[in-house]
Prior knowledge:
Elements: E1 6-12, E2 15-22, E3 25-30, E4 36-39, E5 49-57, E6 64-70, H1 74-82, E7 89-90, H2 96-103, E8 118-125, E9 139-146, E10 152-155, H3 160-174, E11 178-181, H4 184-198, H5 204-207, E12 212-215, E13 222-225, E14 228-231, H6 232-238, H7 250-256, H8 269-274, H9 278-307, H10 311-315, H11 320-334, E15 336-337, H12 342-345, H13 347-352, E16 363-365, E17 369-371, E18 374-379, H14 382-390, E19 397-403, E20 409-413, E21 416-423, E22 428-435, H15 439-459, H16 465-483, H17 495-516, E23 520-524, E24 527-531, H18 536-551, E25 559-564, E26 566-571, E27 574-578, E28 584-587, H19 598-612, H20 618-625, E29 638-641, H21 655-665, E30 675-681, E31 684-687, H22 698-711, H23 724-727
Helix pairs in contact: 2-11, 7-9, 9-16, 11-16, 14-15, 14-17, 15-16, 17-18, 19-20, 19-22
Amino acid sequence: MDVPLAAERTIEGNEQYLRVWAQGGPTRVEAPIDPYCYAREPFGHEPLRQREVTRRPLSTLDEETWVRAEFANVRELADAAHARSEDEVAEAHIPFVHRVLLDRPDYYRRFPNGELSSLHVDIEQRTTGSGFPDEDAPIVSIAWAGDDEAPTSVVDPADERAVLEAFLGALEVHDPDVLAGYNVARYDLPRLRARLQAHDLDETPLHREGGRIEEARWGKGQRVVGRLLYDVYDKVRADQTLIGIKDRSLETVAEWHGLDVLEADVTNTVKLAEEGRLARYNENDVELSRQIGQPYLANDVELADFYGAPLQTIAEATASFHARTLQGRIFVEESVISDGTNEQRFPDLYEQTGGEGFVGGIVEIYRRGLFRPVTLVDFASMYPSILVALGAGADNTRYEGTVREGGFEAHRKADTLTLRVPDPNRGTRHEVSIEGRSPLAEELGELLAYRLELKQKARADEGGSQDTSRQGMIKVILNSVYGVMASRHARYASLPVAMAIVGTARHLIQEVEDLLGEAKIETDTDGVYAEGRIDPDPIEAHVNRVLAEEIGAEPVLSVDADPFEAGWFHEGKNYLLLHEDGRIERHGVAFKGSSRAPLFDAALDEVARARLEDREDVDEIASQALDLSRYDREDFVMRVRLGKDPDAYEATNHVAAQVARAAQRRGREVSQGDQIPYVKTEGGYDVAWPGAFDELDEDYYLELLTKLLDRLGIEARPADQRSLAEYL
């Protein structure tokens, strides 16, 4: 890896330094630039130096005179900026590590980490049949695995200290750059630290000498300075390619990827240990986490090398990082400054719609029911491709105001492209002008071409694992850059760019709908589902002709056709697809069972397949699904995580509050963050203890299943249940 593991700012005396972690340890270096910001008027005596400069604020893109003020350290910069009103200061918000990344793009490459080492870990706490353990429950098993080694575990329900010391020893031997796991930041690491403290054991091996552990931002648990704490669960949650997956649990994601999952009832880990099964289960979880996590980590390494950024900066970045970095570097070169957020630049537009910047893509269902076969006609990387086609970027795209209602229009005069895009939410059209071509469009265009080259190599079986990682890296960048353009809180985004892209996208999707005619079933943002088999080539040729001849943009769009054996369309964005390999893909809350009892998924798997395969016995299968006696106890168990302490719930009828009180009645101490298994009984919600299963609210579970069948167009009742009319 040609970049460091991590970097952080530090102040010593009154001087600004960077602390860079690479090759197993930290190096303190003088900051390559002085912290700075821009202001409309000079500061008093705080700055080291200040001078007048000509800059183009993002709100107008017109040249203006600003003051560039440089400070001894970020603390003095923050104090000076806070003394001014927000509209008088620009770019005081940029974290210093990122400021260096913008102004000195290759600076961090001076500290290459070299080959990256990882250790995946998973813990199991003591349970005896009462459900999810709290932080005081002893750790009875820890499993770990390095990059290329078989998983190892230590199990001892009677000697927690021995288990902990064995893991600390493994940490010191491996000394990994990356400590990874599934939900490791919110569960494994906090519980490990609590149990180490209970035994008065030193936690330094967790973070290396000179490092530390601290709370992560945005409620993401804990983070490590000295190693990279890599939470695979966070990467899975953010993965938009897991289309139709029912939930993001380790087992579900592993099955989605075709990995071998070892199932076990972990509500009683003591029994599992006595039976000799806990070690295998624990090691299997580590192996699953490693296999799922390694591609994400490889993508992040590629991103870090691409940007020249510390790996931890990439791993912890939000989606806005890519726009902030790509646009931010362009701003430095083009003398553009970010003078606020999108909402601050366009307050009237956001106020009109309660915070929504611009109308989204088209989502519309035209026909409902079962269709066989089905084709999804969709654009490859539609929004970033349109950005490239238009040549748009925050540095060259202006908002010109509103014009009277009408259709989509495009006019080119010399080097300026003017678009008039309809906004149904506001009953008007917005006029946006794009002058020349932004460097952002050129850079994304190169990435699109490179990704196409990598995909062609993959189709020819010529690509390796690094090419796969690079494809993933490029996809993350392309999707993220547009994703923040309309965000009200984004500082390096541009609402006019979002208007231009989405307005053009809606126009092109309508062109596709017209070509498909009565075959269209549903439109979902960047694609149209149609009945039958569809050839994408004539459609691609048509939309690129519209781009070039009617809009005056570059014809760079690619149209794909994804075939499915069948599709069941219930309502907008809620549908089921049967792949040619037999896999069922779910879309929408109507068919997602993550917050419902597992019997919902069990019934859906059976009945949906019968419906999609158009089987004659679908009604019989549906009736069998309503027979509650065929399900195991665990199929009735739901889970809730407490978002606050039980006494903090103002609404006493909130499900979490009811379950928490039930747990307390059973003698269990519960607090914020605990996950509690529960069932619905005739007396209300109760924790999943043996006696609760004797009082299950059958009507509640039957209604859950009946609603599911209704969504599949099936009227059914249990096979052995007679109606009142039949009885009489």
